Amino acid sequence: MSFDQLALHPDLLKSISDLGFTEPSDIQIQAIPHILEGQDVMASAPTGTGKTAAFVLPALHLLSQSEAGQGKGPRVLVLTPTRELAKQVSDNIYQLTKYLRMRSTTIVGGMPYPPQIKALRQSLDFLVATPGRLIDHMNSGRVDFSRIELLILDEADRMLDMGFVDEVTRIANETPATRQTLLFSATLEGQVEKVARALLKEPARIQIAGVKIKHDSITQHMLQADDFRHKRKILEHVLSDESVEQAIIFTATKKGADKLAEKLKDEGYACAALHGDMRQNMRRRVIEQMQRRRLKILVATDVAARGLDIKTLSHVINFDMPMQAEDYVHRIGRTGRGGSTGSAYSLIGPQDWQLFYRVQKFVDTRYELTVIAGLEPQQERPKFNAGKSGVKRRNPNVRYKKRGKNVSSKKSNYSKRPEAA
After folding, report:
1. Cβ atoms within 10 A of the Cβ of 166, count?
2. How far, rounded to the nearest angstrom, does the alpha carbon of residue 146 sit from its chain's CA centroid?
3. Number of DSSP helices (H) and strands (E) in the chain, helices first
4. Rounded Cα gap, residues 254 and 204, in angstroms
5. 3-207 CATH pick, 3.40.630.30, 3.10.28.20, 3.40.50.300, 3.30.1360.180
6. CB 281 within 8 A of CB 211
7. What pTM, to 2 d.p., does this model score?
8. What whole-number distance in Å separates Cα of residue 42 and Cα of residue 44?
9. Is the pLDDT of residue 387 over 70?
10. Which CATH superfamily is domain 218-400 in?
11. Of 67, 193, 323, 383, which has the fewest beta carbons less than 10 angstroms from its beta carbon?
């Protein structure tokens, strides 16, 4: 199937051709016709499958076919969970409006207020925003939603996981009831489905593949590490491979990302850290340096697990396993995108085993451990009495004896491991 068959605006087809795309992806084939018909849509598709264009293309087409209403404010509102994802959506809009006259702006935290206030006073076609900063502007009476025709919730599961359910609901309720609503998410279950039922009207439900998709384009390696020093030696070995064009190394904490980035810079690598404590301008500069290949390595927390699109990223390395099993899929999905292939390495230290088993259960795959000659682990692999998932189950209502004291199973050292941000 070609893009011509989707009945999109000719100027959009020219932009698509300039970008080198010839055939729409599965999510685009299934979602775009429903959106063009004015139907609400809730869709799930794995990362790297053209999901952003699946809503940007039809939104641009619809705007080009109708007259804008009187007044100011946006006609299309896109909510994203992170600043990085907001930038990705904005970049996509910019690329696809090469031959269309459209005005868009981005409202995210970590950026100065005055330019955002000025932009919100204008008539906009697209507004891409993160919920927290948009609510700030709403509280000050700076946002006019009267012209909203289309509300898009991108990475809805991530927004809800980050605690934005009340903000998302409030924003949606302040847009016109006549709006069309699109929800894109890695999963359409649990809280996401509850929000969808509340905000969408008889939506078309599309599931290309769940987040548990096995990345066929990515070669996955699981390596056991005895301790931090052993991890560093394995990391050094992986990075020394000539096949590493660019890599993202994921760590569990912001402090860990900074320390590892500094260490790698001392060793001569073009490297930088990326995490939530950095100012937005610095985060944007780091991402641009990666995209322009001025950096070879990015050491990041899960702030980079979604919404980061670097075409030449050949490797993803989990120096620490993610706290949430589904984030493993999003992390490794940064490579092997758009028809290319990639490699993912996960270093399993003593504190990572339960997280490793959670990932195995989540993706329904039993991973074999890879061993590097000369870097073989000296410790035995921990054994967990866990059934299928491999995670030891303990009754949370029972208090267990430990070193002569009564302690709850919830107060293990493992549970104190900080979550990435």
Report:
1. 10
2. 30
3. 14, 15
4. 40
5. 3.40.50.300
6. no
7. 0.64
8. 7
9. no
10. P-loop containing nucleotide triphosphate hydrolases (3.40.50.300)
11. 67
